[in-house]
Design brief:
Elements lengths: L1 H5 L1 H7 L2 H16 L6 H11 L43 H31 L35 E7 L2 E5 H12 L3 E4 L6 H12 L9 H24 L14 H14 L4 E5 L5 H7 L5 H8 L21 E7 L2 E7 L9 H16 L3 H4 E8 H6 L1 H8 L11 E7 L8 H4 L16 E5 L3 H18 L3 E6 L17 H9 L3 H11 L5 H22 L35 H11 L10 H16 L5 H14 L4 E5 L14 E2 L6 E2 L12 E5 L5 H13 L4 E5 L10 H8 L2 H5 L6 E5 L14 H6 L7 E3 L4 H13 L6 E5 L25 E2 L13 E5 L3 H12 L4 E6 L1 E3 L3 H10 L4 E9 L5 H15 L7 E5 L10 H16 L21
Helix pairs in contact: 2-5, 3-5, 5-6, 8-19, 8-20, 9-17, 11-20, 12-24, 21-22, 21-23, 23-28, 24-25, 29-32, 30-31
InterPro entries: 2-oxogl_dehyd_N, 2oxoglutarate_DH_E1, DH_E1, KGD_C_sf, ODO-1/KGD_C, THDP-binding, Transketolase-like_Pyr-bd
Function: E1 component of the 2-oxoglutarate dehydrogenase (OGDH) complex which catalyzes the decarboxylation of 2-oxoglutarate, the first step in the conversion of 2-oxoglutarate to succinyl-CoA and CO(2).
EC number: 1.2.4.2
């Protein structure tokens, strides 16, 4: 039965014979009392009517009292009723029966007409004329054929009562079909009936069905559209002529995208919009930079000539021109909209979550009305939208409390092709936009060769977003005049499409013909507009020869006062200690809970333990150190935002930043209640997404450098699902685009026998990304050092990403604790921690073992148990920037010692391949008799860790013995070829 009421086609076939009479009777009962019919029928009739009044109200009563104007050949409704003057004469039984039959017939006609209208609302887009090339002509759909509903051609001119549906009280069937086809099957196809929110669905229905609600284009508006189309097309053809064969990923075929964005900005400004962040791939970027953000044409020509400056001098010179971003203030009738185009790599859709994070941060900075004042526009390619999983991950964020932005406008530049891949090979659904239905976003498909239709659809999109603060999709169906890039030959793979394109007039030609035929402009007017813009391009081209970019504006706005930092000096320290009163205040907040709050008994014990730490000043563990860092920053006015999978409690039940009442599940955030004048604290459990959530937090951090922004992976190796963000944004954005970030990434890391997927955060991958002081990579061993590392992020006058190999077993390790004095004045961050035990004199030390992270405590415990006193253990806390001076001081300290690097990870992973040559250079520079460092650890491996606990334990014990006791000759040669070649497959 559910299928019947969800499928208009089945409705139509069901309305025949006895079924028709039955349904008409049911409908009459429904109008009298909706509760008198089954719930399924109630739903069906309610959806069918979509707000119409009681159809039967006009039909019931004796035949002479009905407005029989519905029926062709009926008596004049203004004439006196035929029997009204016949005193005392009542209608005969036959007349009454006839009246009832007629009422039922009219009722059934109305139901059938409403079903036809509803079918167009649901399926009309399938017959819309969307393809400007005409290669995919829509096939007739049976649910949109009035014959399917029991009507015949003889009914076309018979009026049917539809009670103001479509804005018509009644109309001939011919008119009804004409209106619904014009509304839903023209150059705009609307998908909205999948939406489950009645107010949103009704709004779109009213907005597209009523003549009064359609965009009324003024003469000035049409002239402006003509001007924008001319500028968009001429810019591309000019570049094509001047730089033949040079890649630019032009917008040709999708020029109407420019007036669409202009309409969103202009109409948005009227609806309160003040800030827009745009994310897009390379196609059309240069056009949007110049014609939407008004980047100087001279700058673009200069970049084509290769005249860009060094990254230290100007924004974005470390990447190709079609990846660059910029920002500008646009004025629309006295209202200013600040527009930012985010820089983006060639990884399609990677910028999407970055845009969302930047938008959310800006909204938070504005505060009240932030959602109405700030939005994001994301431009997608059709193949990328359907094919890139991060798109779905971003849609999944749309309504989540920690990530929602009040709606994003998605514009699809729908080329109807990927690189060379036809849509039938690129997606399984009807449209590339089908994925947007997962969040019930309305989808407006529009023919890109009709600029007015595109602008109208764009207007509807921004109005919907501002009304409901929900996502909306504008699918501009267009084409790509050249191949994937201007040096490509598309006819190799799509000969039919590109033959059609070569013969197809441009959007400028189409629209010029339209405005000329309407008498709005003459051919001379249009030619003059084209000539004027070409002259402007000529002048800019000449000026581009001597153009030099201005100093970068990338440290303005929220970045005001911060500095660039290339080459951090190792010996430079920052004041990261906190004052004792601040520590006391935070300690009190994190060790107490509200009265009458039903705490879990285990949590109560943890709070008592924190109170004891506060009282004694000893035994401060990792989670407490983190809370102290967060809390003291909050007291200093820095917001803190932490998100990730299960971050509120912490994957390892260590953080408990959110306390849950065990009776009514109320939530209490200790760090939100430190003091009234503190900065806000946010902690969010994220969806099971790494790519989108990391990208979101990265975007947030780039927009708000005064907040401590952290993303935490559930396990460190889950970060590989977000590798594109690390590769293209976190590690490289400062050099490519001069965009800094202070994002902190927490990656649980450590070998505890949990198998290949829960051991390694792939330290080696991050170290491979390190260069030019682009970020920090640390593997810390003390809570105090963690505290200072977090505070260092905001206590400096520049920002760098921080990658932390965060602990698992060390969260509760009895030795992994710090004293309160290490957090106060005098405490600081240590890039390297030297030996802490009393050993033999330095000259008598036979071996110095360098290590990092959790393995230190295994080494320390084994050395103490074995009472070894001639092996020193030094901890490298910060891998990058490499603490060269600190390492050399330790090497000098032990002049007669062998040098060993010990790690838990296999030899081809972890830090070994990063530190090996660095130790060699340091030893050579010191003329140390130990000419190189030796390796102690697991052999090279394809897998990150053993999957059997017993194997893990054996390997762990062996590497500890190697580091402390084995002779250098016995230590493993991790990359030596096997001697038994018969074993090599």
């Amino acid at each position: 039965m559910d299928t019947l009421f969800n499928d208009p086609g089945l409705h139509a076939s069901f309305l025949s014979g006895a079924n028709a009479t039955y349904i008409a009777e049911l409908y009459e009962r429904y109008l009298d009392d909706p509760e008198s019919v089954d719930e399924t029928w109630r739903t069906f009739f309610a959806e069918l009517r979509d707000g119409a009044e009681d159809i039967r109200a006009e039909l019931r009563g004796p035949s002479w009292s009905r407005p029989d104007r519905h029926v062709i050949g009926a008596p004049d409704p203004d004439a006196p009723p035929p029997d009204a003057k016949k005193k005392g004469k009542a209608p005969t039984a036959e007349a009454a029966d006839l009246s009832q039959d007629t009422i039922r017939a009219h009722t059934l006609d109305s139901i059938r007409a409403l079903m036809l209208i509803r079918a167009y609302r649901v399926r009309g887009h399938l017959e819309a004329r969307l393809d400007p090339l005409g290669l995919t002509e829509p096939e007739p759909h049976p649910e949109l054929d009035y014959h399917s509903y029991g009507f015949t051609d003889a009914d076309l001119d018979r009026e049917i009562f539809i009670d103001n549906v479509l804005g018509l009280e009644s109309a001939p069937l011919r008119k009804i079909v004409e209106v619904v086809r014009e509304t839903y099957c023209g150059h705009i196809g609307v998908e909205f009936m999948h939406i489950q929110y009645p107010d949103q669905k009704a709004w779109i229905q009213r907005r597209v069905e009523s003549e009064l609600n359609r965009t009324a284009f003024t003469d000035l508006g049409r002239k402006t559209i003509m001007q924008r189309i001319i500028e968009a097309e001429t810019f591309e053809t000019y570049l094509h002529r001047k730089y033949t064969g040079t890649k630019r990923f032009g917008l040709e075929g999708a020029e109407s995208t420019i007036p669409a964005i202009e309409q969103i900005l202009k109409r948005g400004s009227q609806l309160g919009l003040e800030h827009v962040t745009i994310g897009m791939a390379h196609r059309g970027r240069l056009n949007i930079l110049t014609n939407v953000l008004h980047k100087p044409l001279e700058a673009v020509f200069s970049e084509f000539e290769g005249n860009s400056a060094n990254p230290e001098d100007v924004q974005g010179s470390g990447d190709v021109k079609y990846h660059l971003g910029t920002s500008a203030d646009r004025d629309f009738d006295g209202k200013t909209v600040h527009v930012t185009l985010n820089a983006n790599p060639s990884h399609l859709e990677a910028v999407d979550p970055v845009v969302l994070g930047k938008v959310r941060a800006r909204q938070t900075q504005i505060g009240e009305d932030g959602r109405a004042k700030v939005t994001g526009i994301i431009l997608h390619g059709d193949a990328a939208m359907a094919g890139q999983g991060v798109v779905a991950e971003c849609f999944a964020l749309a309504q989540l409390v920690g990530y929602r932005t009040g709606g994003t406008i998605h514009i699809v530049v729908n080329n109807q092709i990927g690189f060379t891949t036809n849509p039938k090979y690129a997606r399984s659904g009807q449209y590339c936009t089908d994925i947007a239905k997962m969040i019930q976003a309305p989808i407006l498909h529009v023919n890109g060769d009709d600029p007015e239709a595109v602008v109208h659809a764009a207007r509807v999109a921004i109005e919907f977003r501002q009304t409901f603060h929900a996502d909306v999709v504008l699918d501009i169906v267009c084409y790509r005049r050249h191949g994937h890039n201007e040096s490509d030959e598309p006819a190799f793979t799509q000969p039919r499409m590109y033959k059609r394109i070569s013969e197809h007039p441009t959007a400028r030609e189409f629209y010029a013909r339209r405005v000329i035929e309407a008498g709005l402009l003459t051919r001379d007017d249009v030619d003059g507009m084209l000539a004027s813009y070409t002259e402007r391009l000529d002048a800019a081209f000449k000026a581009g020869e001597s153009y030099r970019p201005n100093q970068a504006d990338w440290l303005t706005g929220t970045w005001e006062g911060l500095e660039a930092a290339f080459g951090e000096e190792e010996y430079k320290q920052y004041v990261t200690a906190a004052k004792r009163p601040a520590l006391d205040t935070v300690f009190k907040a994190i060790s107490t809970a509200p009265e009458e709050f039903d705490l879990n008994p285990k949590i109560a014990r943890q709070l008592k333990a924190k109170a004891k730490m506060w009282e004694t000043g000893k035994g401060i563990d990792w989670a407490t150190a983190e809370a102290l860092a967060f809390g003291t920053l909050l007291l200093e006015g820095h917001p803190v935002r932490l998100s990730g999978q299960d971050s509120g409690r912490g994957t390892f039940s260590h953080r408990h930043a959110v306390l849950i009442d065990q009776t009514d599940e109320r939530k209490y955030y200790p760090l939100k209640t430190i003091r009234d004048d503190q900065a806000p604290f946010y902690v969010f459990d994220s969806p099971l997404s790494e790519y989108a959530v990391l990208g979101f937090e990265y975007g947030y951090a780039t927009q708000d450098p005064m907040s401590l922004v952290l993303w935490e992976a559930q396990f460190g190796d889950f970060a590989n699902g977000a590798q594109v963000i690390f590769d293209q944004f976190v590690s490289a954005a400062e050099y490519k685009w001069l965009r800094m970030s202070g994002l902190v990434v927490l990656l649980p890391h450590g070998y505890e026998g949990q198998g290949p997927e829960h051991s390694s955060a792939r330290l080696e991958r991050f170290l491979q990304l390190c260069a030019e002081d682009n970020m920090q990579v640390c593997n810390l061993t003390t809570p105090a050092n963690y505290f200072h590392a977090l505070r260092r992020q905001l206590r400096r006058n520049f920002r760098k990403p921080l990658i932390l190999m965060s602990p698992k077993s060390l969260l509760r390790h009895k030795l992994c604790v710090s004293e309160l004095s290490a957090f106060e004045d005098g405490g600081r961050f240590y890039r390297l921690i030297p030996e802490i035990d009393e050993l033999v004199p330095d000259e008598a030390i036979r071996r110095v073992v360098f290590c990092s992270g959790k393995v230190y405590y295994d080494l320390l415990q084994a050395r103490r148990e074995q009472e070894i006193t001639d092996v020193a253990i030094v901890r490298v806390e910060q891998f990058y920037p490499w603490p060269k001076d600190s390492v050399q001081r330790q090497l000098k300290r032990y002049p007669n010692a062998e040098v060993v690097w010990c790690q838990e990870e296999p030899a081809n992973m972890g830090g070994w391949m990063f530190v090996d040559r660095r130790f060699q250079y340091a030893l050579e520079e010191l003329h140390n008799k130990a000419r190189r460092a030796h390796y102690a650890g697991r052999k090279a491996s394809a897998s990150t860790a053993a999957g059997v606990a017993r194997t893990h334990a054996r390997e762990q014990a062996t590497l500890i013995e190697q580091a402390l006791s084995w002779s250098l000759d016995s230590l493993p040669q991790p990359f030596q070829r096997p001697t038994d070649l018969s074993r090599v497959n």
